[in-house]
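Researcher: Here's a chain I'd like modeled. Treat it as a single chain, no partners, no ligands.
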Amino acid sequence: MEIMKRSLFILVLTVGVTAQGQGLTEYNTQKNTISKRGMLFLGAWGLGNAAAGGIGWASSNDPQMQAFHQMNLLWGAVNLGLAIPSYIGAAKDDPSAMDTRKSYSAQIKKEKLFLANTAFDLVYVSSGIFMRERAKWDLANTERLNGWGTSFIIQGSFLFAFDFAMTMIHNTHRKKKFEPMINISATRYGMGLRWVI
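Model: Modeled as a single isolated chain. Structure tokens:
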């Protein structure tokens, strides 16, 4: 029964391309716009952290603040390194080139990626807490561990909020725009697909 349902789903997704082509292109365009805006936001955060971290690291005499700014500079560089290629990828993506099945698959993959990232973000926050705890007994590295730990907590918390928000925005977009479009196609062909999405 499950195989039959999946086969019907694939059939309707394939047939739905002709019925919903223009709506699908619009949907994929909106999805890419959401991704580009998210990457601009992440890139701006990264650039701000890299700039402030570099200035703070160079101008501070306090070892703990130097470590804090040093780590923020590194986080900023990593975030920029992730945001730029992701933005370029979304900008190059041709919304009209994807059929219904590929659009659905890409959408779910994107949502799962952002959701998986939230788990990594909690690891970053936990690592920061661990560093700050270790600083209490590792007296030779107290300032450095406190600075790095604080940076990890702040950066991990931001990334958790960002990744969770992107998951919810993409999820809401799919439910409001993609699912009704597919259900309309399914209804035209006498099938109900609410179970699959």
